[in-house]
Amino acid sequence: MRSWLRKHPLLGRFWPALGLIAALLASSAPASGAPADEPTAEVANNATVFYHTGTRDWSAYYLHYAPTGGAWTTVPGVAMEAACDGWVKRAVDLGDATGFQATFTDGSGTWDNNDGANYQLGAGPIAVRDGQVSVSDPCGAAPDPDPNPDPDQNQARIYFSTATLGWRTVNLHYRPDGGSWTAVPGVGMTEACPGWVTRTVDLGAATELTAAFNNGSGTWDNNNGADYRIGTGLTTVADRRVVPDATDPCAGHEPDTEAPTTPTGLTAEVNGVGVVVKWDASTDNVGVTGYQVTLAGGPGGTAVADTTSTVWSRSGLEPRTDYAFSVRARDAAGNLSAPTAPVEVTTGEAPPAPAAGEPIGTDPREDPIYFVLTARFFDGDSSNNRGGSQHERSGNASYDDPMFRGDFKGLVEKLDYIKALGFSAVWITPVVLNRSDYDYHGYHGWDFYRVDPRLESTGATYQDLINAAHAMDMKIYQDVVYNHSSRWGANGLYTPTVYGVQDEQWDWYYDTPEAGREYDPLEEDAEGRPYNGDLWSTDEPTGNTCVNWGQPTGSTSPEGYRIYHCQWPSPTSGMFPEEYYHQCWIGNWEGEDSRSCWLHDDLADLNTENAEVQDHLINAYNRFIDMGVDGFRVDTAVHIPRIMWTRHFLPAIHERVEERFGAEKAENFFVFGEVAAFVNDKWNRGSVNHSAQFFTWQPRQEYSADDAEAVLEEYEHENGLGTGGQPTSDNAFLDGNAYHAPDRGRFSGMNIIDMRMHMNFGDAANAFHNGRDSDDSVNDATYNVVYVDSHDYGPNKSSTRYAGGTDAWAENMALMWTFRGIPTLYYGSEIEFQAGQRIDCGPTCPLATTGRAYYGDHVEGEVTAGDFGEVESASGAVAETLEQPLVRHVQRLNQIRHAIPALQKGQYSTEGVDGHMAFKRRYTDTAAGVDSMALVTVTHAATFTGVPNGTWTDAVTGDTVQVTNGTLAVDAPGQGNLRAYVLDTELTPAPGVIGAAGPYLH
């Protein structure tokens, strides 16, 4: 459930009229003052390309290009001509095409090919400056508003401040009173001095104009929708404050001619046919704005690339080839530092495809889980980073923080960090190829048969990650989605055709269709826009089922764009066939329609009662089973009826694992479902069909062989039985002090996330007592996945990451690591990362301000793990992170849990226990030579009566007690601390004190 509007389900019901505004138009917004009835201009298939020369110092400039679907010009291309100070230009006739690929060269073997990706350009005026593309004419003249101008015509001299915006390009879109608007995006403004751009406008007889400003990349300042009113004379506009008759903000300014310092510490690391180049930051009297990397060698000659980072990578180089790299720093005035001395490397062989793995196959209760959003954890390869069409609108651009930032390479590099924390399983977000405007989280699957290339790198594929984790005895749990595809359907099953118009309103979104060309997220254009030509048709397609195809609705976007029918996915428009997709919006989240209707337009609800849909999903996930993943976390499990899980999907998983890897590994392949019951009672508002524990059981009677009928029959039958008619279990409970073999005969194959404990973790004791209350209705609660907060919610359905404080976090952890279930930690919680920040706000705010912020800064540096929970060596920022109090706390908790089988797999009881959060646990497997029993109290004092006599040793302090009368009393250890007295049994001796005393466990 990752759509950013997921928490507001009712919004989805109004989408056919208004929803297009929120996501589709986010990156293009002309001034709201533009007249709604202004005629649409004809799109001319030509372009004028402006190229900035200020940081190139080439003796000549050529444009080498290929119109979409056409051939490239002959190398070196066509010569560009001088345009204005710092710019050259070239007009391009595109013929029937509406876009083209381009590179730039000096004609002598030096190239700017957009860091190896080529520039993806469209029609109209286009400015390319230091790797950034904008729609702008930086040299053009404003149109004459009056065909017969008066020699004494009025002028407006406008200065616009970019100091707090960071825009490299600024366009002025305006209309003199009584005149017409300039064509979007307006006319280019020129740099006047640092932080200011200017433009003088001839007003004719008018004395005022209406204006808005934009960066040529879809981001606008239109005075919060009111536009700006500007008169004659000199006017400044800064942070929405208009000052008429102002003084020149650049008067007396001395041009910045001081270059930045030369970067130092340049290194280049080769990995097969890839290279990562790093350097230390430069300094400048005003400020460094970026770097220019020069690559020499190989068949491509010399290439220059622009970056704002001090790390640059390139994959896919020629094998066994010499390359040299040098770097120069750049400031806002275009001054370049001297280049570094080149660093030379020789690439190796292209790595062979990794061998398929196999699951580790041990009991999943032995493995505490670390949960990461792969794209937000650690960036191992910046070349696969993608900001997407919402990069600027979201605010991510201002943080230099593309939504797709972390990757498998970064995760492989930081497995030692996760192991040093003590975790032996890693839950990662979905890996399949996604498709939406904001899909870094992975829950908008479009091609279930492909791994998203924004996560992979040379030598760091998904298979490489699985193999690397297994080599460290760590498991990979893959997040999977069966309930829904992306808003654009599922590739290979059904992809809808939408209505698109390539006019001045929509040409930024809809591309020209090309035969055989399909969506590839690595082929974004310079504005982060993916290719959408495979989705749309201006003409009504043969066999169209969408109602009112291409007809205008009565709605427009806030900017005045007309919205058309069939332009955006909807279950009620006829765009999706009912054999593959359900046809309604959810009205009752605890009703039958929650399994048969759409959650949101980003989440097209699959008809999982259809055999073709079932086969599509089963075969897709079989491929990942074959790769050796250790389990599946199932997203939105509650929105698929239980009988579809028990009849089709769960048996298919078990059968595939058993077929490939044997019965034991099939038994331990861990499937745990998200059954989102956000209430604090045992049953979700009395609806058994929507309660988490319900999904751990097999159906108790036969239903129709027709799946569509069976789901209704089961719903009605179980709803009629109610909460009192549900099965119960003692699988999680001791029989006195004795462990007994659990009865798993009625187990469905799906374990669950413990939503009840999660909802109540605002207070550890509350979570403990609520969890106990539900355990008799779960098939086996010792398999429950337990966490405090996640990528969706904090406790009590909070929209912010947990902020209860360090002591409360320590107490929650102490309980999770000793009570029944599998402790799970959301990335960064070990340092209270982003505590109190809203977890998710979609593209309405920067990711850096949310609970899904990038974590990599905290784990930069080197770390080598010993055994689980042990650090052999660490340096840099990660060394500081590993010294934080909760890190040391969770390390020791993991050491203790790994050493005591009772705390991993034991049944529990509170019989004979007098304490606030106290319990006894035992696990016995005589065939394996294990009999482990522990008495645990968290924070508070406790007394245990009726326990076996013998020697009990506390794993925290090493205190040893000889029990002769069946009673053991424990003093209160303090908040976040615990005592775990372990019985010295014939089969399993007590381990004694485990780990070193820390800030809480002492």
UniProtKB/TrEMBL annotation:
<feature type="signal peptide">
    <location>
        <begin position="1"/>
        <end position="33"/>
    </location>
</feature>
<keyword id="KW-0732">Signal</keyword>
<keyword id="KW-0119">Carbohydrate metabolism</keyword>
<dbReference type="InterPro" id="IPR005085">
    <property type="entry name" value="CBM25"/>
</dbReference>
<feature type="domain" description="Fibronectin type-III">
    <location>
        <begin position="259"/>
        <end position="350"/>
    </location>
</feature>
<feature type="region of interest" description="Disordered">
    <location>
        <begin position="336"/>
        <end position="361"/>
    </location>
</feature>
<dbReference type="InterPro" id="IPR003961">
    <property type="entry name" value="FN3_dom"/>
</dbReference>
<dbReference type="Pfam" id="PF00128">
    <property type="entry name" value="Alpha-amylase"/>
</dbReference>
<dbReference type="GO" id="GO:0016798">
    <property type="term" value="F:hydrolase activity, acting on glycosyl bonds"/>
</dbReference>
<dbReference type="InterPro" id="IPR017853">
    <property type="entry name" value="GH"/>
</dbReference>
<dbReference type="GO" id="GO:2001070">
    <property type="term" value="F:starch binding"/>
</dbReference>
<dbReference type="Pfam" id="PF03423">
    <property type="entry name" value="CBM_25"/>
</dbReference>
<keyword id="KW-0624">Polysaccharide degradation</keyword>
<dbReference type="InterPro" id="IPR036116">
    <property type="entry name" value="FN3_sf"/>
</dbReference>
<protein>
    <submittedName>
        <fullName>Alpha-amylase</fullName>
    </submittedName>
</protein>
<dbReference type="Pfam" id="PF00041">
    <property type="entry name" value="fn3"/>
</dbReference>
<keyword id="KW-0378">Hydrolase</keyword>
<dbReference type="GO" id="GO:0046872">
    <property type="term" value="F:metal ion binding"/>
</dbReference>
<dbReference type="InterPro" id="IPR006047">
    <property type="entry name" value="GH13_cat_dom"/>
</dbReference>
<feature type="region of interest" description="Disordered">
    <location>
        <begin position="133"/>
        <end position="154"/>
    </location>
</feature>
<keyword id="KW-0326">Glycosidase</keyword>
<dbReference type="InterPro" id="IPR013783">
    <property type="entry name" value="Ig-like_fold"/>
</dbReference>
<keyword id="KW-0479">Metal-binding</keyword>
<dbReference type="GO" id="GO:0000272">
    <property type="term" value="P:polysaccharide catabolic process"/>
</dbReference>
